[in-house]
Design a protein that fits this description.
This protein has 224 residues and is an alpha/beta fold. It contains eight helices and eight strands.
């Protein structure tokens, strides 16, 4: 569900989300409710883009992103830009005629939040990633470039916050072992969570606590 065109406010964002318990296939499963962060800015994209909300960017007024016209990151970046008072230029390989004529999903939500969605010029023979990378090299001082899906080191801040929340919840539950399951597109969330637990737990003198990050690629054939 998309709350497209709704008012977006930093005050409405709640990063410390609850954990619900449910039963699935006769097993007890816990669900971190990151869908409750904000109606328009939630899930792993909210975590990966947290850095761009919390840090100061006094000279930035435009963010440049790219990906699919129905990507979750498109909607999230549009909301991020709206929260910060920035313009979003989001580059896509192409937009299907049907979608142009019948806007829906993340595409519609992004448009309603002010996104400028730009198709790659037909004369450009390279792929979208290389095209936007070339644009980023020419970026002005007022522009910030975010790789597809937020797959960059900036994602570490929000995902480390998530990791700390998970460990705090485990402590409250007197739990010392956890299998953490999540889907992957680029694999960024799984990578940074795994790195966080591997680095943090020994330093925090918690050798008896184990968190296994388990993921499944849900986009394309490989995780990059």
């Amino acid at each position: 569900m998309f709350a497209a065109g709704s008012n977006v406010s930093l005050a409405d964002i709640s990063i410390d989300t609850p954990v619900d318990k449910m039963r699935f296939a006769d097993r007890e499963v816990f669900v971190k409710r990151d869908d409750l962060i904000h109606p328009d800015f939630s899930g792993n994209k909210a975590r990966k883009f947290q850095f761009f909300l919390t840090q100061d960017f006094p000279h930035i007024n435009k963010v440049i992103g790219y990906g699919s016209p129905q990507a979750n990151s498109l909607h999230s970046l549009a909301v991020l830009a709206k929260l910060r008072g920035w313009q979003l230029d989001y580059h896509v390989d192409h937009i299907a005629d049907y979608l142009k004529q019948n806007p829906q999903g993340n595409y519609l939500a992004a448009l309603n939040n002010g996104a400028n969605i730009v198709e790659k010029p037909k004369h450009v023979s390279g792929n979208l990633d290389s095209y936007v990378s070339d644009l980023a090299k020419q970026a002005s001082a007022n522009e910030i470039y975010i790789p597809e899906g937020g797959r960059c080191e900036y994602a570490a801040e929000g995902l480390e916050t998530l990791g700390l929340q998970i460990l705090s919840w485990m402590h409250q539950q007197n739990m010392t072992r956890l299998n953490l399951f999540l889907p992957s597109g680029t694999g960024t969330t799984a990578l940074f969570l795994q790195r966080f637990f591997k680095r943090y737990l020994p330093q925090a003198s918690q050798p008896t606590v184990t968190v296994n990050v388990i993921t499944c690629s849900c986009v394309g054939e490989t995780i990059t």
